[in-house]
Amino acid sequence: MRNGTPYNINGARPSVLVTGASGFIGSFLVEGALERGFDTWAGLRRTSSRAYLQDPRIRLLEMDFRTDEALESQLAAHKQAYGRFDYVIHCAGATQCRDKADFERVNCEQTLRLAETLCRLDMKPKLFVFISTLSVFGPVHERDYAPIRETDAPCPNTAYGQSKLKAERQLQALEGFPYVIFRPTGVYGPRERDYFLMAQSVKRHVDVAAGFRRQDLTFVYVKDVVQAVFLAIEKQVTRRAYFLTDGRVYSSRTFSDLIRGELGNPWVLRVTFPLWMLRVVSCLCEAWARLWGGTSTLNTDKYNIMKQRNWQCDLAPTVDELGYRPEYGLERGVKETIAWYKKERWL
Q: Within its chain, how far is the Cα of 147 from the centroid?
């Protein structure tokens, strides 16, 4: 770093490719790279929105992950014109799919395709950052509520978590490949649409909870995800995996209570559904969406996520090895998020 700006040995700014750049986390990673002085490339599909990629310093790279030939052609052309990327942050992926097999195709097969193509073209970066998920571990320590640790055996119970775990293991199997894996818990912030549905529900005076047994939740604000990623790049750690939260544990009602406060404390009807009922509704919603060729926010994967009682995880390695210090507790993060929703007239 020179005066807070990264430089290569020859004095040039290092380049970074952010895949999935048009999405929620990806667009914030692009902004974070620009703020830190990187030569920033936004990888996205031809049909992806550019709404959050308006900064003229952003270089756009259309990427087609569907076949080896298409991706190799695009990356080879980039190498010939601009050289290799110093860093790659792979954020592209699927969180909702009509067919569960698509999770493996998008989150697993396409991740491996990108890594192998970079190696084949002699474009292996100094560091390949993979954005995974805490869901790769599934329901661990559900009785004693102990924090999930990296030494625990993963047992994902969602198609999404299974696909991310398989992608992790394939990256780990690539000999000498310089990966870092991040496993964030629930990521929220401006532009995010799943937690927005909760805010919308609270505004409509309904607050829904799942199950009657204690549920320990964790969250991480999107800007803290960005912080952690660039700390890994700065520290040049490789072949490691880290959990990401804000370092605190919350009850199942905390998030909605904070939303309610930011909305002026509207009256709400608090409804707690038994898990069996949510399972039935989730299955019906998923079947209906499949019948009409769409996706449903409430589905069997979502049910398994809501059913999980323990989302605590061990943040110590992330703090000790990277110097990660979360800047956003849930109160500050929700305040900033709701303010953005209001400003953009989402609420």
A: 20
Q: What is the pLDDT of residue 5?
A: 58
Q: Domain for residue 306, yes or no?
A: no
CA pair distance 310, 330, nearest whole angstrom: 18
Q: What is the pLDDT of residue 9?
A: 56
Rounded Cα gap, residues 232 and 150, in angstroms? 17
Q: CA geometry: angle at 194 spanning 250 and 137, to 5°?
A: 60
Measured from the Cβ of residue 152, the count of other Cβ atoms closer than 10 Å reads 15
Give the orientation angle of helix 194-203 with respect to helix 330-343, to 10 degrees: 80
| Whole-angstrom distance, CA of residue 310 vs CA of residue 142 | 6
The Cβ-side half-sphere exposure at 290, using a 13 Å CA radius, reads 13
- Residue 2's pLDDT is what? 45
Answer whether 0.90 is exceeded by the pTM: yes
Grouping H, G, I as helix, E, B as strand and the rest as coil, residue 170 is: helix
Any domain includes 92: yes
Q: Do residues 55 and 21 touch, judged by C-beta distance below 8 A? A: no
Instruction: Give the separation between CA 290 and CA 344, rounded to whole angstroms.
Output: 31
Q: Which residues pair with 310 in a beta bridge?
A: 216
What is the extent of the structural domain holding 104?
15-185+220-247+312-327
d(CA 134, CA 241): 11
Report DSSP letters for 88-126, one per residue.
EEE----S--SSTHHHIIIIIIHHHHHHHHHHHTT---S
pLDDT score recorded for residue 1: 52
The low-confidence residues of the chain, meaning pLDDT below 50, are 2-3
Domain count, the chain: 1
Cβ neighbours of residue 304 closer than 8 Å, sequence gap 6 or more: 157, 158
- HEC letters along 13-37: CCEEEEECCCCHHHHHHHHHHHHCC
Amino acid type, 343:
K
The pLDDT value given to residue 332? 98
Amino acid at 150: E
251: CB partners within 8 A, 6+ apart: 215, 216, 217
**What is the domain-level CATH number for residue 176?**
3.40.50.720
322 in a structural domain? yes
